[in-house]
Design a protein that fits this description.
Helices cover 73% and strands 0% of the residues. The protein has 60 residues and is mostly helical. The model has no long low-confidence stretch (mean pLDDT 92).
Length: 60
């Protein structure tokens, strides 16, 4: 295991992006709003992935 620095502010922003993803999952199972739900899940889910990777592995 290597000693790498984790960018904590960026990791917090990635975690905050999970809020709209959870809202999208909620809308997905509610009446109507499936298009908005998939948009929220896709857009913010990708943001969580990209920011999380950049926070943990900044050299990649």
């Amino acid at each position: 295991m290597s000693n790498r620095e984790i960018n904590w502010p960026m990791l917090v922003v990635a975690a905050l992006c999970l809020v709209p993803v959870a809202a999208g999952v909620f809308l997905l199972f509610a009446d109507g709003g499936q298009a908005l739900a998939w948009a929220l899940i896709g857009f913010f889910g990708a943001g969580v992935w990209v920011l999380g990777r950049k926070a943990i592995w900044p050299e990649q």
